[in-house]
Design brief:
Blueprint (H helix, E strand, L loop, with lengths): L16 E6 L10 E6 L10 E3 L5 E9 L9 H6 L2
Antiparallel strand pairs: 1-2, 1-4, 3-4
Amino acid sequence: MGAGRADNCWVTTQTLTFAAARSRAHGPTAALWHAVEVHRAPVDLDGACELTVCGTLARVTTEQHWPVVATDACPACTVQAR
């Protein structure tokens, strides 16, 4: 290894990935799209409920990508998952 070389075989980089998830409506609260931070391959997502960025439980979908192009997206997830 040459002097000043920045490569380190013990350092890994991780790409932050978000998946879209849909919550259920609860009383006066409408169903919203949320962001879920994913730490595994998208193919491993099976539609189960996951904890969203804002702390809600919502069902992950692979049919939508975060950020969703919708008016019913969670404001907290929209800000936190930029």
